[in-house]
Task: structure prediction
Amino acid sequence: MPIVISSDNVKQFDDLVNTRDMLIRYHSPNCGHCLAMENEWNALDDEQSLKEKNVAIVDIDVGIAYTINHPSAKTALVQGVPSIYFIKKNQMFEYSGERKAKKIAEFAIVRLENPSSDIVEPTIQSYIDIPNEKEKPKHKTTKSRRKSKSKSKSKSKSKSKSKSKLVVKKRRRRSKSNKRPKSLQQ
Result:
């Protein structure tokens, strides 16, 4: 069984972080995805490769994550559940692959033996949802295409007139598609 961190033993988490490498899963008891991967997460406890490397398997209810003073808890609160991390000393790696015990164990062993540059370093930007004004959609939406076509036809028309034309065109299309069959028309 994985080590379950609850509000009663939050200090045990701090001890584990300082002494052992860990695979952590933040979950919610009401989350369908979390419930679906429950058996796979419990199967990690039987993975021989993780036992040999003395990797702790830790399960934390996201409801108590705000009481944990670790970047993984803060990131899990922002990103949602299930969130899986591998913690090695002062490095944190986020797992985003398939939710199978073998795949998660392989991920942890690879990070344990050969840490790479995909370390998650939480920043203020990741905690605060600030929209970036420079980012624009790559593809024009249908509405913006219609606007650009109407502008190119006659630039002298005002925006309100072009909008009203768009509405009229939409209504015409709808009325044509809603026609009754000729056999039922009088």
In short: The chain is about 45% helix and 15% strand.
